């Protein structure tokens, strides 16, 4: 099958260097022509935590992706009712002509939670998952976690672990640094860092 679009959902609050590393690993896999970022309008799993407005998260994604035409930003999830569920997003993509299995990109830590998603059986019916390794998440742990949905060799047909170093970048840590007026440095793409980190005042003395 020729390379095709791969969909990368998430809060992206904010988009960080780890997200771009995962996207580039997907592009290097041979299966992916473009990575389509799908920021969630109203993620169901954030427990009431205050999010950056959707428009701001979208703007930062556009900044981060502007230099690579293979990285695309979509507002598709803004067309769906809240909260944002992957099963609904996949069904909308299919209704608009996407042929299953749709490539779905996520971190291994996100995959661990898949059995607890909204209609996870629809997700595995419609998608093939490219998973980025995360520190401390072993392949055996992943297999055991999703066994209720993907028993036995179904895991190997539905999930591919990307070849890359485990991504340790944390949006939670980035938000903590920014909230304390600290510079996350290389944890953010430079264009995103420039937009979020206040510049020091000019010394006019």
Q: Could you please describe the fold and organization of this structure?
A:
The structure is a single chain. The chain is of the alpha/beta class and 205 residues long. It has a single domain (4-196), classed as HUPs (Rossmann fold), CATH 3.40.50. The protein contains nine helices and six strands. The chain has a six-stranded parallel β-sheet, with helices on both faces. α2 (54-65) links the parallel β2 (32-39) and β3. α2 runs antiparallel to α9 and α3 packs parallel to α5.
In brief:
By secondary structure, the protein is an alpha/beta fold. 36% of the residues lie in helices and 16% in strands. It has helices spanning 17-27, 54-65, 86-95, 108-112, 120-126, 139-146, 154-158, 171-179, 190-196; strands spanning 4-10, 32-39, 71-73, 102-107, 127-132, 159-161.
Q: Any key phrases for this structure?
A:
6 strands, Rossmann fold, alpha/beta, six-stranded parallel beta sheet, single chain, globular, about 200 residues
In terms of per-residue confidence, which ranges show pLDDT below 50 for 5 or more consecutive residues?
Answer: none
Total helices: the number is: 9
**How many structural units, i.e. domains?**
1
Biggest sheet overview: 6 strands, parallel
**Order of SSEs:** EHEHEHEHHEHHEHH
Distance from first to last alpha carbon: 64 Å
Strand arrangement, largest sheet? Answer: 3-2-1-4-5-6
What is the level-2 CATH architecture name? 3-Layer(aba) Sandwich
Alpha-beta classification = alpha/beta
Overall pLDDT level? 94
CATH superfamily annotation: HUPs
Radius of gyration, taken over Cα atoms and rounded to an integer in Å: 17 Å
Number of strands: 6
Residue share in β-strands? 15-25%
- The helix content is 25-40%
Oligomer: single chain
